[in-house]
Amino acid sequence: MTSTLPSGLSARPSSAESLPLPVSLRIRQRLEEAGVPFLANDNIADILREGELDQLEIEVAGKVRELLRSLVIDIDNDHNTEGTAERVARMYLHEVFKGRYHPQPKIASFPNVKKLDEIYTVGPITVRSACSHHLVPILGTCWIGIKPGDRVIGLSKFSRVADWVFSRPHIQEEAVIILADEIERLCAPQGLAILVKAQHYCMKWRGVKEPQTSMVNSVVRGDFRHDPSLKQEFFELVKQQESLLIR
Length: 247
Ligand SMILES: [Zn+2]
Description:
The chain folds into 2 domains: 86 residues, GTP Cyclohydrolase I, Chain A, domain 1; 135 residues, GTP Cyclohydrolase I, domain 2. Helices cover 42% and strands 20% of the residues. It is built from 10 helices and 7 strands. A 5-stranded mixed sheet has the order 5-2-3-6-7. Strands 1-4 form a two-stranded antiparallel sheet. It is globular, with a radius of gyration of 23 Å. The N and C termini lie far apart (78 Å). Zinc ion (ZN) binds next to loops.
């Protein structure tokens, strides 16, 4: 079969070839070459180069603009959606999904010089996330129980690391495991317990529209896992702390 293209056209480089790759594709290529996973709840800060987050913000804003156009919203004339694309891009990259693009906050650990080995609990820590399935909010509270090991971190640092871990698209079951991994990396406790209770807006706002349903899950590691009385003590302490809350 003969080509129907005008002669010479196929030899010319296409305009797509001469354009630089979108920044998201360049980042993606590096991630694939390095074998680094980039699932919704992975952090990719290490692979980002200087200035790329700003370029990504521009690219994402353009895509959100296209999304709004595809939703048949007259963004050229609607005063309410003026700047929405830029706001949404900023919100995703620097606020609600910052745990994907920004490095972990600096958290110093200190030697446990007094060899403290009594358990303590920290909470409630507010956690905010979004479900990976619908990208709508998950809002809840988190409790952390620690039996210290050789190193300790400040109490406020648990809030910081929880915020960083949860600020990604997630499913709650995996968020708790990732948070446990990060805390173990930071201070290697002898025992670690985490309890999260959260409401999922994909159940409240849409779908079955259950306004009160929450999901509770936990992870227990080390001594909390091996010693049922310690695990019991953790849940008792959480219950006591919860009863002290002002409602
Ligand atoms: Zn969902």
